[in-house]
């Protein structure tokens, strides 16, 4: 079992999920960098490249949608007790009995 708090992990995922903060908390640093990269790329498409044409804006929407879908999957895995920390230990659901 992981020594990371289930409540903190779920809260971070629910509030800052698309930025990837929960991955850094859980010790999954590469996963966190990937999430952060997706978010920053989407923001760059919206605010920097979006003025150069609608294609960049649509790419930003696609990147943000992929990031949001990934966050929903991770959130589901967290609340059902299927998520693991960076050392491969399961994040225990309080009162889960497992």
UniProtKB/TrEMBL annotation:
Pfam families: TM2
Entry-linked InterPro entries: TM2
Subcellular location: Membrane
Primary localisation category: membrane
Transmembrane helix in keyword set: yes
Transmembrane regions: 6-26, 33-51, 57-79
Superkingdom of the organism of origin: Bacteria
Originating organism: Marinibaculum pumilum
Protein name, as recorded: NINE protein
Keywords, ordered alphabetically: Membrane, Transmembrane, Transmembrane helix
Record-annotated TM2 domain positions: 3-39
Topological type in the membrane: Multi-pass membrane protein
């Amino acid at each position: 079992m992981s020594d990371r708090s289930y409540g903190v992990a779920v809260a971070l995922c629910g509030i800052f999920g698309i930025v990837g903060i929960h991955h850094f908390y859980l010790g999954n640093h590469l996963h966190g960098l990937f999430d952060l990269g997706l978010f920053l790329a989407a923001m760059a498409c919206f605010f920097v490249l979006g003025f150069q044409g609608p294609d960049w804006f649509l790419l930003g929407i696609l990147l943000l949608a992929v990031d949001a879908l990934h966050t929903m999957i991770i959130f589901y895995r967290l609340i059902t007790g299927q998520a693991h920390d960076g050392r491969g230990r399961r994040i225990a659901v309080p009162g889960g009995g497992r």
